[in-house]
Every structure is written in structure tokens, then in C-alpha cells.
Batch of 2 targets.
Target 1
Amino acid sequence: MLLQRNQIRIHLPFAAIALALVAGGVIWYVIDSRAAGQWLGGGSTVGLVCGIVAGAIIAFEMLLWPRKALRRLRLFPTKYWLAAHLWLGLASFPLAVVHSGFHLGGYLPATFMTVFSLTIFSGVYGWIVQNVLPKWLLRNLPAETIYSQIDHVAGLATDDAKRLLIASCGQRRTAIEQVQLDMEDMDMSLTQTIVIGAVRQAGKGRTSGRTLQTKQAHDSRDDRDRLWTAYDNIEQFLLHGSSITSPVTDRREATIWFNRLRKDCGDPSQDIIDSLEQLCDQRRQFDTQRVVHKWLHAWLPLHIGLSISVSILLVVHVWTALKYW
Amino acid sequence: MNPLQNPTGKQRSQRIQLDYFRRRTGLDRWRSVCIVVGFVAAAAYAGYLFYFVPNSTRSMATAIASNEPGRNLLEHHFNTGALSSPHASFENQCELCHTDFTPMDANAPSEWFPLIGVDADVSRKHLEDACQKCHQVGHHHRSKMTAQFAARDQNCSVCHRAHQGRDFELTKIARRECLYCHRDLTPVANSNPAVRNSVAAFTKSTHGEFTSLQQGDSGKIRFSHALHMMPGQVAADAKGGMTLSRLSPSERPRYVREGQTNSDLVELDCSSCHESVGQSVIDQLGTQLKSVDLELLGRSMEPIQFEKHCEACHAISPGVMPSTADPLRLPHGVPSSAMRTQIASMIDGNRATGDSRHRRDDSKTTPSPGLGQTGDRESGHDNVAHDASGIDWRATDEEIAAAEQSVRNQCMTCHDEESISEQAILASASDTAATLIPTRWLRRGLYDHAVHRQIDCRYCHAAAYPVSDSLTQSALPTDTHEEVMIAGIESCEGCHRAADTPTPSSLQRSGDESDRLISIPELIGNMPTWASDECILCHRYHSPMDVHRPNESITSINKGTP
């Protein structure tokens, strides 16, 4: 959930509640501990209250799951629910530390506290990256697409490149047959505008969206062999990205490689080469997006898994702590 | 779409698959893995704890002895810490101290538990009973406490914190535990406390003077420490000082000092009469002394015994005894009726053995064994004894009465009339009779002479010493038995102070003439001048007199108290 100025009204009440809980718990704990002459444990009045509050918060945090499952019921606006999830979740950690009396205890409470700490850490990490990486993606990866569609869009881009070449300079000379020569003429006559991709563009105000990019086909049959050879060199890269070793995998080497290609080709082919270079750049953005996407989203499954463990360990901890209080 | 075919407008706009959100990606699989692993791992651990741990072996003694931490499952999983070594064998038997779902935590909100049907009193009593099985100690004026503090008193874990690790000392009670109540006894006691209402630290202003010292000396023995510390036990200008030659040969080695001859005056020091409990045992062991024997050295001093500490100079004599090498002595603490018989027997016995003479015998000759003085037939006694030559040597009533008076006069040197009455002497034979010299002075605290043995006696008992060795008879007190010659709390608080306070200037004072050339550092054996000021150093909590009454609850003790 974004934490920015225009959302301060959403966050502020829950942040205030969290701060009040933590400050109240800590101050009460320090006062009682000073009176007792020792750091009180979870069995003391203040330790017990802090533990109950922290446990209740953990239970509330886990309600995010059923709430999502029942989102059709529109029980509570998601933005408020998530703000409460974030701030109360943050408050639960210092309350749990106070509850523990700064002792990890046996394996069970130590495991519980460790898993709980990891859960909080993963959540904080997720909150941070969600406030940072999307903005970076928006700024640096205009060709960004839906993560699961990267391979599909990469395939489309490969097809676009091939269609652009066919439209501009015809089929490969070695594969030409009479029928294809006829089609070549047809392609040359019919395919004047080729889609070569889509980029995200921000409109006025808050509107934004993706715009198809097209390219006019020019007659480049003089450079047919060179362009088809170039395509052969970059096709696997366009399909599979940086996992493939090619002249265009590295951005700097790609620039040199395309510059050399431009020198070897005539003027009509320059637009085609620009388009190919643009498609290669798009593919590199997809690769970057794939990495960033993992950083951006891989924490959440971890957070969920840890949360489930925390919930189970919380029940066990409550049972054993009350039994041997 | 065939790349050779020109795409339609719709195809151009569909750069993504419309059902993309239904397609599982690597992240979806990662989420499933995390959920399953998180659930299974935690559930497996919970199952392990609930099923395997309770059924684990209870051979804790074996586990501890063989240092196999892996077998100590309860300790590792549930315990907040290991039990101390003396209780380590109970590590897996939580139920010995704990009552299920009933808190014993002293800081728990016990007053709210009845609202949910939990009685913390049950848990505290369970723990107390468990402790009492081995530790037969009484409570701490519990009947005089309000319910809240009586509950703390009943809860052994308030002071004796378990689960603090193997090396934790359960009896090392911090001062804060004492101050919890003693900082202000007003809310603690049911009525006005008999002790100081507030004690915050170990200083004269916050702790007060030792109560025992304020009560004066209850002893009834007339005695002057200063006089006895003078050479010959007389003033410098007095004659007739006690010389070594006047001591019996068997007593003499005990009092003779290096370089002294029999004509020298007896010089006493503290150890002449005061010795630590167990010191005599250690002395007797000699070369057989072992390090463990030193543990015999007690904290307090042996009581003063007439036969051991006084008789060498103050032997009870009927006045007719000769100065033989080791004369028979009249016993101490004997009723007058028995004393009369003892006196008569002694006189007759001495005359019978030729060790004494009749009161009118001035022949200066050595009497023959078995003979006394020539007969006293004019005395008219019918029951007189005669020897072979017909001489009457039995003591007469007048002689015995005169000897009795002489003995009585000797008794009155140290005792008063009341103490030597027939009834008082008979009563003193009882085991429960009060001693004429208190055996312990600081009754509310514990002073350990053994650990302070490097400190010169003068540091705490300066009043027992004469101001000077040249004191004249008029300046020397003859009886100071009502004066308590123990320094007050100020002699302790110099060293026993808070750790963050500097050494007081009184401990750094150099000696001068008034200090008899001994500086304070020398008096305290040049030892470090800081020691702990924890209450537990001197005070003990549990009362041996208050016998724990099983099945007695706090609420029943303090019913109706505020």
C-alpha cells in the first residue's frame, strides 16, 4: 500500500492508534518494571495485557485472508483494512517484545518470536518495495507488460519483427518459391503499417495506458540478406531474453552491433533497423521487469507462509504459557 | 496468428491474453509452496510438542548427569530457562511446582482471576507445599500482613526465581525484593509494625541503628574489659598484678607470651577469652588440619565459660588451700547447700592428704601425708575424726561457715546477690535458662566474625580497650558491664555501601596518637573498602518459629483485612 501525501488521511488514524498502543504499553511496562526492580515477563499484568493485545492484532492481521476471500461482500474498504493491517501489524512487534520481557525463553517461544519477527520483517520489506519499485518501473520500464504475459508478448514482438522484414524486404532469398514470390508482392502491396509493440504512455491528468506502436514498411529489398541475417541473430534473444547469448543481449554491445548494421545497409533500411533495435530494447526491459517483479512480489507468499506459522505457534504458545503460568 | 498474414485491428489491440489472470505463474507456485510449508512446519512442531514431548522419557537425572541436552525436551521447548542445579532433577516434572492454568507469577493480575474462575491461591499454596517438603522454613510475619502482601509472602517464586539457569543462586535475594515491602510498611502491615516503618538503604539515616544495641547489655556479670586488658589486670599505679607465677602450671602456657618469664605480668588480649566457634577443634587438629576443617570455623564466638576463661585467675577457693602445683578447686555454679559440702570435703580432703593445715597451725613445717594439725579436743565436736595419733582434723562448722563466706565474697566479685541465690543457681542449670552474658548480640541480623577475621577487634570494639596502658586506678573503670562495646551501624556502612558511592573519608584516616598509632586501613587489615550492602548479607527472611500450616489459605488468614 502506497504511503504518500495524498493518502495521509487513510493512514493517520491507524498510525495514531498503533502509536498509542505502543507508547502506552511501553510506558506502562517501564513503570511497572521499575517498581518491581526487574524487567517483567509475560505473566505480569502489563506483560499479559501487551501479549493479549499483540495476539489480538495477529488474529486481526490474519483476518485479511478471509476478508479477501469474502471481498464480494464489501465488508470494509480495502484501503482502510490494509492501512489497519500495516500499522497495527507494526505495533504488534514492540508489544510482543515487551510481552517477552526481553527473553526468548525456550525453543517454543524463541521459535515463535523468530518466525514472528521474520513475518514483520517480510511485511515491512514488502511495504517498502511496494512504495519504491512500482515508481521505478513506471519511470524506467515503459515497455512493461503484465508479468505473466512477458513470454507471450515477446512472441508477438518476434512475429512483428518478422512481419516487418517480410513487408519491407520480402522473404528470405533461400526459401523463396514461386508461390512465395507472389505472396511477397502481395505483402509488399498490402502490408504498409506494421505493429511493432506497445508502450505505456501517460496522458493528461490521471489517464494512462498502453499505446500500440506501428511502423510504415519501406522497400528494403536491397538489404534483404543483411536484414534477414540480422533477424536470425536476434530472434532467439527476442523470444527468450537474456538467457540467450546473442550480439544484442548486452545493451552496449547491441548498440555497437546495430550501428554496424546501419552502416552496412542503405537508407530505406534504417527504420527497420531502428525497429529491430527497439524490439531488442523492449525485450531487455521485459527481462528487467521479470527480476523486479520477483523482488516486488516474491515476499508476499513468504509473508503469508510465515503468518500461517505464526498463527499456529501463537495458539500453542498461549496454551503452554497459560498451562505453566 | 500467422506472421505472414496482416493482423486485424482487434488482433493488433490484443497484445495480451485476456485470460492471463487464470494462468499460474512461478509466483503462484511459490505462494502455494510457502503456504504449505508454513502450515505443515508449524503444525508438525505443534504436534511434536503435544504428542512426543509429554511422552518423552522422564529419566532427567540420567539426562542431566550425562549432559545430554537433547533429552531434556521440556526444558528446551517450554521452559523459560533451566532450573538451578539443586532443582535440576525436577526439570521435567512441571506439575511439582506448577498448577495447570493457574498462575503463580507474583506480578500477575491475581485480583482479576476470580472473575474468570481462577484462584491463584491454589497455585501459590501448591508451590509452597512443594517447597516445604524439603525446606522447612516458616513464613515472614504473614499473619500481620494484608492479603496482597501475604500472597507475596506465600509465593516462594517471588524471591526464589526459578528458570534462571543452572548456575543461578536461588538464595541470592536482591535488596529490591526486601524493599518492595520495607520501603514503606504502611500498606503492608495490618497494624502498626513493630519494626522501623521504612528502610530504604543500609545507612544510619535510612536503616537506623541496630535495634539490639539500643536495648543495652542485659548481662549481669560485673566486668571491666579495660581493667582486664591492662598488664596484670591492675591499674598502672596498683600493686599485686597477676603474674604468670600465680597461675597454676597447667594454665600458664595458655597465657605466657613469647619472651615472658614467670615473674612477668599476665597480659590478656581478645583471643584470651573470645574464640570463634570451632576454633578449638581446629587448634586440636594441629598438623592434621584439612581444608574442609576450616569450614568448621563458625560465624559467632564461643560463649564465655568460667572454667575455661576465668578460673585460671579467679579459682574459687575456701581460703585454706595451699598453693600446690595444681590444687583442687571448688566447682562453679553450685548451690550453696552443695557448696557447703564441697567446701567441707575439700578442707577435710586436703588435711587428710597433708596438703593443708589447721587454721592455727603455724609450725611452718611440712605436714606428713595424712596428717593435719594437732588435735582440737577442746572444740567439743562429737563427730570429729581422729587420725592414728588421735588428732582431730575434720573441719568445724565455723571453719566451713568462714570458708563459705570467703567463697561468697569471691562470687560477689562478678555476680550480684540475686544471681547467686539458691534459686538462681538451681534455675541456671536448666537448658532453657538465660545466660548471664548474652551469647549473641545482634539478634536481628547476622554478623559473621569468621569472614571479618582480618579486621582488628578494636575497629568494632574500641570501648573494650583502655585508653592508655598507663591508666591509674582512679581513671580505670572497675565495672563496665552495662556498656555495649559494639560499634554501631556506622562501623559497617563505611564498607557495606552502594557500589556507586565513593570510599568515605573515615576509612582513609591515618592513625595518630588518639588512635594508638594504628590507622583505619591497618585496623581493617588493608582490605578493600567496599562490600555489598544487600539485605540478605545480614538478614534472613524465613522464621523458624512460624511453622507452616498446611491447607491454610491466604484468604483464610487475612479474611477481613484491608
Target 2
Amino acid sequence: MGGLLASEIFRLRKRLMPYVLLGLLLAIVGLLYLLLWLVVQVEAEEGTGASELEAVISLSNVLGDGMDLAYSVAGVMAIIPAATLVSSEYAWGTIRTLLPRSAGRDAFMGAKAIVTIGFTLAVAITGFVGALIASWIVSTMGDFSRDLPSDFAAEAVLAILRTTLAMLPYATFAFMIALLSRSTAAGIGVGLAMYFLDDTITLLLGTAGDTGETLSEFLIDANVSALMAANHVEPPGDHFSAWRGAAVLVFYSAAFLAVSIWRFRTRDVHVN
Amino acid sequence: MPNDAPAAHGNARVVLETEGLTRHFGHIVAVDRLDLRVHAGEVHGFLGPNGSGKSTTAGMVLGLIEPTAGQVRIFGQELHGASRELRRNIGAIVEAPAFYPYLSGRDNLKALAMAWGGVSEGRIDELLEQVGLTERAGSAFKTYSMGMKQRLGIASTLLTDPALVILDEPTNGLDPAGQREVRELIPRLAAEGRGVLLASHLLYEVQQVCDRVTIIQRGKVLESGTVTGLLERGSFIEVAVDDLTTATNILEALSFVESVTRENGRLAVAAPADSGAAINRALAEQGIFASTIVPHMNTLEDVFLDVTEHEDGDTQRTAEAS
């Protein structure tokens, strides 16, 4: 699989799309911080007192609120390449060129799965870097709290890993849909729909009695919330354990990848 | 030399063998108990009308499509579950050359070489040179003309130095000079010890470069044999003489003559194409002098149309009867 993985990385590095997506992520995170900073300035001028927003965008909260902010955008950037990674091979017909002499179908899908996970990590790192730079700039301009914990580096690594894991089920879901449908549009469309509607579904299900509430705790969004809450010094809301959230998200990601690999193993690759 | 190249063409190994290869798509039988053998050092034409099952067969040989029944063997080893080394021995362009549009020609070959392993950077340059793409190797594939795409396809086919090469319409989109280059390249590939399976609609092209052909229709083999053998079948020698009855008797007595028929006041003698001199001698010895002895050779197009239209007629009659 090493050769296939090297080839995947080589092709991804040569493609413009990943750079555009990561650049967009940096720009959007920066823009969000700027907008929130402007709101804080307006509130200060109107004398409504220190806003909660000030705490949200301050450097000292970059791991909690900053990563939440980055996550809200980063998921989209993880879903798009995950879907295109597999469906583009069908669209360009390159699957029939690459596959016959490669190390086999499992290795082919394995390499793509690793690249999907790797790129999701890259998205989380970029989101963190964007939030870090933007929060430092606005905190300096607004003289907000810039205190960082002594173990900031270790906490930052954990926050990045948690954010990666939070995005991974959506990315692998888009990957699976793109493979099943052999369509980039379907992978991105259904993946984004799930990403944006998941919290609404979780909320609605949570109001449907005890059974609904129990079921909602096993949906992706509830577990993402539990995991991302661990990035905060004082976790917001009432969540179950982050470890449980992580386990459920790992399960979802592994299941989506397993379905993809299983389906691809026996599927005809049509040459017409 | 390709991997596992045979020692000699005369005693050539079977590179590709299919036995009872079958593929159903629902009720449609795309490939029906196909038996095919491609030897090392041989260019094997694979002919059939559109939708006859050529691409499905190629897909099964490449492991892209799962057969419903039957086997594909490469060097006598079952392809299903075959080692990577064995599969690296098959190079193919099926339908149209397919590459990453945003990568250059060189980077496309590099990406494939990485994925397949065991290909040196020097090999990439050598192949780019061989197919005449060195100058445009750095340009993005999406900017290539159809001919350049075909050339890159041929280069990628040879990247792992395969023993079996499958080429589907390799001259499609090439200008006349490019077509000639490819037609000259194909026998060279075979001369290097590779088995070449060539699917093409250009029957004169197949006639020029192939040693053997297999004609399929609706997934079934209609004819298979040497090009020379197929061309001789149905060929005849036209003989013009004054005394048709005596000449017929003389010629029918010759061992190499299959039949003699009268057509438009002349004789159509079913005999090997190179037997004109023997026919002339036999007639002259009996005092009959031919004013014309002209061999009429079939073309592959004649054979192909005869075989496929004959099959069409049979199918239609069967359908009408039922």
C-alpha cells in the first residue's frame, strides 16, 4: 500500500483544490474573528459592557471557543476533498488506469482512507492556526486576555486531535456516499446536508421522549459536542464523557470506511 | 525485454488464456463462454461490432469486472487473487487513455510509477522519448490533443514492462503519421516477446499488424485463427479459358483445389493464393491456355462482415422461428 499512498499524496500535493480549501478556511476563520471583534467594539461604544463575545475571541480561549469557531467552517473543508478523492477517479476514468496494476482493491481504498484522515487532520491544524493568529490579532487590538495555560502546546495537540475526530465521521460519510454513488456532487451534497442538519435532527430526536433522547445521544452531533466540550477549560452545557463521544465517533468513521472498502471489493469497475 | 519474456516466438508461451469466460448483466449475456489465447510474441486482433463484449472482456482480464463464470489465466496462473507481480505484467489502454487532467504528462507517469512500484525515473524519460512526448512532458494532460493522450496512454502501458499489452483503438485520434508510428510500434512490442491483444475497428490496421484474430459478436466467438488462414478462406483464383468444361475437369483433379465453379463465363477456383503457377502449368500440359489467372484475396473486412452478418441472419431466423 506504500506505493499507492505515496502516489495519492503526490497527486494531492499537485492539486490546487486542497490549497484553495485550506486558504479559504484561514480566510473565513479570520473574517469571523474580525466580525466578532467589530461586534465587541460596537457593544463597547454603546456602553453595554464587556460582551461574552470578548471572551470567545480572546487568545486565552482559542482552544475552546476558537476551535469551536474553526470547526464550524472546517468540516466543510474536510468533506469536499473526501468526496472528490474517490469519485474523481470515476469521473476521469483514472480508476481503470491505476487499479489493475496496483497492490489491490483493499490497498487502493486503504490509501484513500489514510489520505482522507490525513487531510482532515491538516484541516484541523489549519483551523487551529487560523484561530490562533486571528485571536492573537484581535486580542492585541482589543487588549483582551492573552493568558495561555502552561501546558498550552500539549492542550493544543489534544484540541487538534479532538477536532479532527469530530470532523472525521462527516468526511468518511461523504467518502462513502461518493463511492456508492460514484458522484462527487452526491458525496459533497449529502455529506454537507448531514453536517448541517445533524444538530437539528439530534435536537428534534432529543425532544421525542426517553427513547428519542437515548437515541439522540448516539447520533454524531451529540458525540461531537461531548468531544469538543473537552477543549474548553470549563466545558459548556451538560455532556457525557468525551471518551464516550470519541469512541462513538471512531465507530462511525470506521463503519463508513468499512462499508466503502467492502462495497469496492466486489464492485465492477465499468470501463464504459 | 518484458518480464518473463519467452525464449522464442515459435515455441511461445501462452501469456493470456481465458476459458469459458462469461459475464451476465441481468438477462444480458455480455460475454458468453469466451475462450481466447494470446501467445508471447504475437499480435492478436480482437474484433467485434460495438457492444459485442470486447471492453467487458478486457475489463475481466484486467480484474476490473468480475466474471460470472470461467477463468482468466496469465502465464497459466489464475488471475483471481493473483499476486501484484503477476498483475503488473498486464499493461492496458481500455476505451480511451485516462489520466489526471491537472497533472503533466510526466507527473501522470510518475504518479502511476509510484503506485505500481519498481519503475525508475529513467524509464519514464525513456518512454516519453519513445512516444515523442518529451517536449510536452511538462504540460498538463488536459491541454493535450487526442493524439498526445494516446501517446501518453501507450507510454503508461509500457511503464511496468509488461508481458501482455492490451490496446483498445490505439490509433484513435492520431494523425496519419501518428497512426503509422503506432502501427509500426505494435509489431515491435510483439517482437520484444510481449503478447499484444489489439481491439480495433480499423480492419485494415488489424490485417496489417496482427498474426491472429478473434471475431466476437454478442459475447460469443464467431471466428478465431491466423489472419492468413481467415483471408484465404473464401479467396479464389479467377481463371479465364475458352473450354470451361475441360478446364474444370483438369482443375478438379488437382489435389490443392477445393472446388471449381463457373461465374460469368469464367472459373472461380478455390485454391491457395500462391497456386496460380501450378494451375497454369496443369492447364497448359493438357493444351489449354488461360488468358487470365488472377488471385482474388479476401480482406479482413470481407471476412468480418461475412461472419458477423451471417451470425445476424442466423439470429434473426432463429428469433422468427421461435
